[in-house]
Amino acid sequence: MSAAFRAAVESRDLEAMRDALHPDVVFNSPAVHTPYEGREKTMALLSEVVEVFEDFSYSDELQGEDTHGLVFKARVGDKQLQGWDYLKLDDEGLVTELTVMVRPLSGLMALAQAMMERLRTP
After folding, report:
1. 61: domain CATH number?
2. What is the DSSP string of 31-43?
3. N or C end: fewer C-beta atoms under 10 angstroms in the chain?
């Protein structure tokens, strides 16, 4: 159920986020073409994203049979952004696919730059 993922993200609880992801989850980044495959790679990114996003909050949720859309607002530095976490779930409610979309372009660029800097740093 997406409620577990949403609660984990809102509380910035990395362990709970990890538990909400299927071991073979596919993460589609808003800035990188090639998907990241697997829980470990996805968590490596999400653990950085929770540090980069400021004033993060979900503002709406759309629900389908095995899909959920979580609309969010956040800030990266002085750039405000809006986004959408599109989740596909398995029968047990684990996230099998996470696609993140971000707008406007200036917010996406600020996010991509901040993530590049964090991922480059050993």
Report:
1. 3.10.450.50
2. S-SSPEESHHHHH
3. C
